[in-house]
Write a structure and sequence with these properties.
single chain, alpha/beta, Nucleotidyltransferase, domain 5, 2 domains, five-stranded mixed beta sheet, 11 helices
């Protein structure tokens, strides 16, 4: 049984032999929309309110009693400290009361394996696993990771400032769109001209694997100052969304495919909320095909924060004899590069 409360989704999942038999998610998007972003104190309050309900529903869906659980997992980090604490302490209390092993999971590492979970009900397909370069793109993080083998990875690069999803949301706010703006930009971009306006592709030609999106956001702000009222025209707004989205997607896809080529890897994967973007999925499919690369994308329900990916990864570690001390503390700033030594415990 796995718990995920790193930000503003309360999620509990039950995994049996790699199959996600239950994955409940209570989203807080509407609650935070009026503030234009996640408010940590409100997120914590909602986790406290929602977690018992979501956990009970997950067990009911799985047809299990708590005593049937073999191990309990939770996200240790990274994430909002108060939010992480709710899921971690709940999982630890359950594990302690049942006398079961506890496993602490790194949120980003769980994302690395979500592209290998698919179907209905979702099932982990590690038999098809192959070395890959993986993109994690969300509101809080953007990074490239070389997944050299199952449970073995090396971080190649990350954003130096804003994450891709943060850039989407901030640009949407500049355009007068509501929060979360990323999905709205995607929807409007589908009816716009991506070549209508020229915006920078930050670090796209840089030989390294890092990202930077703050300059793009600033470029959009200056453009709007020079062209007051342009976003009030419905078609120009669509064109703006398409042009900005094209810039972000070009960078994400270009960096991902470029890293795979540089490393001689034949497969690329992607996960995180931004990878639900239709423009991204379409362009990655075309570009990867031209480069002779296989593509694995997390299915939309597993792109955003969820306990299913946490549970699937925890089960793989559990089967290898891994566990985490029952009194482990949250790790709000836990870097993905630190996971290996910790997981060997």
């Amino acid at each position: 049984m796995a718990f995920e409360t790193s930000c503003d989704e309360t999620s509990v999942a039950v995994i049996r032999d790699g199959v996600v038999v239950a994955n409940g998610v209570a989203s807080q998007v509407r609650l935070h929309a009026e503030y234009g972003g996640v408010v940590p104190e409100l997120a914590t309050r909602e986790h406290l309110r929602n977690l018992p309900v979501v956990a009970a529903a997950a067990l009911e869906t799985a047809g299990l009693h708590p005593s049937d659980i073999d191990a309990v997992a939770a996200t240790l980090g990274p994430g909002l400290p108060q939010a992480l604490m709710i899921g971690l302490r709940s999982a630890q209390a359950l594990a302690f009361s049942l006398g079961r092993p506890f496993l602490g999971v790194h949120h980003h590492e769980a994302h690395l394996y979500s592209p290998w979970i698919a179907g209905e009900p979702p099932r982990a397909d590690f038999g098809a696993f192959e070395p890959n370069v993986s993109l994690i793109a969300s509101g809080g993080h953007t990074m490239l990771v070389h997944v050299e083998g199952e449970l073995r990875h090396r971080v190649l690069g990350a954003t130096l400032d804003d994450a891709a999803g943060e850039c989407f949301d901030k640009v949407a706010k500049l355009l007068g769109l509501s929060y979360p703006g990323g999905p709205l930009v995607d929807r409007l971009a589908a009816e716009g001209d991506p070549g209508a306006f020229e915006f920078p592709r930050p670090m796209l030609r840089d030989p390294g694997h890092d990202f930077s999106f703050s300059g793009l956001k600033t470029s959009v702000r200056y453009f709007l100052e020079r062209n007051p009222g342009i976003a009030s025209d419905p078609q120009r707004l669509r064109d703006l969304c398409a042009s900005v989205q094209s810039s972000i997607v070009d960078v994400l896809v270009g960096k991902l495919v470029g890293a795979a080529r540089a490393l001689g890897v034949r497969c690329v994967t992607a996960s995180g909320g931004v990878t639900c973007n239709r423009g991204f999925r379409s362009q990655l499919a075309r570009t990867a095909s031209l480069a002779g690369l296989a593509v694995r994308l997390a299915q939309p329900s597993l792109c955003t924060d969820n306990a299913a990916m946490v549970g699937v990864l925890a089960e793989r570690r559990f089967l290898r004899g891994c566990s985490t001390p029952i009194d482990e503390e949250i790790r709000p700033g836990w870097a993905l590069g630190e996971v290996q030594s910790h997981a060997a415990a």
